[in-house]
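[INFO] parsing input record for Histone deacetylase
[DEBUG] input buffer:
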Amino acid sequence: MAMDEDEDTVMGEAGSQSLPSVTSPRWTSDGPGIQGNGQLNGRSDPSIAPPLLGQSVKLPLSAHSGDSRPEHTAGTGNQGISPPKSLPKSVDSGDATTEDFDKQDSLVEDNSDWTDEDAIARTGLPLASLPSGLCYDVQMRYHCEVRPTADVHPEDPRRIYYIYKELCRAGLVDDPESCRPLVARLLRRINARNATEAEISLVHTPDHFAFVESTKDMSDDELIALEHTRDSIYFNKLTFASSILSVGGAIETCLAVATRKVKNAIAVIRPPGHHAEHDKTMGFCLFNNVSVAARVCQNRLGDRCRKILILDWDVHHGNGIQKAFYEDPNVLYISLHVYSDGKFYPGGEEGDWDHCGEGAGVGRNVNIPWPSQGMGDGDYMYAFQQVVMPIAHEFNPDLVIVASGFDAAAGDELGGCFVTPSCYAHMTHMLMTLANGKVAVCLEGGYNFRSISKSALAVTKTLMGDPPDRLHTTSPSALATTTVRRVMMIQSRHWQCMYPKGPPQDGLFTDRLHDVIRAYQSKQLYDNYKLTSLFIYRTAISKSFENQVLASPNYHQPVPLLVIFHDPPEIMGLPHPVTNKLEAHNCWLADVMKDYIGWAVGKGYAVIDVNIPKHVTIDPSSGKYEEEDENRPTATEELAGYLWDNYIEPSEATEIFFLGVGNAFYGVANLLINRETLYKRVNSVVSFVAENPVRAIASHTQVWLSRWYKDNSLVFVSHTHGVWNSVETRRKPSKRYGQLVQSPKASLSEMLMHHKDEVYQWISERADVHDSETEEEKKPKPKSRSPTKENQGEPRSVAG
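[DEBUG] output buffer:
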């Protein structure tokens, strides 16, 4: 083949030099011969291609180039061109010498730290010329159910068959059934082999190996009975053979990548392995393929493959991999999985974000636990960009192994997520920037044939050099953003690249700010309106209970009573971008409730102000991030019941109004539902809802409750709330949700400020009815909406 057919040119100054149309030169003393067909020593897939330029190569000047410079050769041995040592003089100066012309083609500058030999050695694409690898063996399909039932088992032997056929249809494999034409550089087959007991014992106990091996001699009835004693696993007489072949395939794939026999590879293997623990089979897994392969690479290759990153994007947490390396500083395990508070398989707390490793391995375990199913491309890409890749680059591995379950793919009913093949390709593409591109992808889960086939194809094409397809969805969800930010804060203790940083140590920061703010509010309300603390009997002691319930001096007198249940005031702070410290001058407090209290006291009403902390401080206070207490609604209801029995119901209040703000309203709602006669004493209810669900007020035993609530409530709901979507698409919400008012504001503080006058008017019109009855001039007036004023038996009937 003529050299000009390769369309390779040597770019000289102004393009004046080019390779003539001659047969390809042969390498002399510095390398093997290049055949005329572009093959190396007759082989189409060289392990490492020779440099494109070398001292032994002669680059003749084209006779047709029009260049009048004399041909110059340097050296005596190979008649090659030796790059000059310095920059040439200007050709236009008139005094340029022959040596100056050669210096114009120098590959290095005179002040460079590279030698000429270094510059020449860095030419060419030695890694790009390597093929990608594929490991697949039909014998891995022999692991199947002894007596299949009508419902096909999710871990179907055909899983790997469909993936392999998809690669063949794409023309990536040299197989008789592959579609033609085939790609120029095919996948190089990596032969699977049986893993040895010694290799498997690097992760698993001898008893575990013996147990799996014993299945080959069991009867069918014994194998079926064994299924019922194990966690989500089946057996047959060929299970052991398929399992050790799967482990061996993972080992050979990782070794081929680590030793540069291939540039990267994918292992289409089964049964999967990332759930298998050192002494336990579970979750369709018998031996932990990836973990054994990592250990073999470390033992066999030493420092060449000491640090290994295992990235697990299976929708389930790889509990087996985590346990295998939990104390190992040389293996970084990162898992993206659905967690759902430990309710999603495999369950338990091990997959949560605060499990970061132990001993020497602390910080080498990174869990990104999705709070629910339904995660998509934007969520996974956000996690990769914010957590996976920064930590992986800081770790700087020698080898990347992907525990590649495709059960988070769109279409997989077991996973319930929506990751597209393009997203898998993008994640693969990012991982290829690590470890000089040494990436070994080993199949784990994935149970929809079409989903796993298309996803595996996208990953394989990316490994072979094809750019990923464009993503259509790149924005993360609020759930994903919250999860990733929490993981970043937790991992910031172990990785320099992770921000924001959490508190440096426990015990240094002793007071949580919500307790400090409540103490400040208590003092302000006493100084301005003489509100004092009401005694609340407690079985526990906490700073959060101090000044929790404040009341005006006239709370027991015959005046209208406003009872306010509210969340702590909103705080806005701008932390330092590096240290995450909040400084007082960069924090703001939004306390609108004091305006409502001031208005009520000014009208002569009584006020009981109830602060519902989102977290009850337990001494000594820890410096870690705390979620809202799970029992907060129950605790709020108990407190509301205590106040009703001991302070509100015995009072002589003429009218009683409830004002609920945020999640604190849950206690009021449950009180209305569970106390059958309470609504007869309450005039009306006002609540503000920003993000939390709108609470329904209904009871099977109180048929009038929903209608009463509809007629005697004002429920301000943020315009961003999902309840308005249902209004637009279907029908109006049920009367159980009360009289809904769409607010143009989003946050609770904004809503409280915006709707002050409406609330004032609503309460005034109802509270002042009692006072107007004493006027001499009898005017038509609205009936009291409090059942205490008339018709104590049943509330009035109002059309809903």
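[INFO] The chain is about 30% helix and 10% strand.
[INFO] shutting down worker
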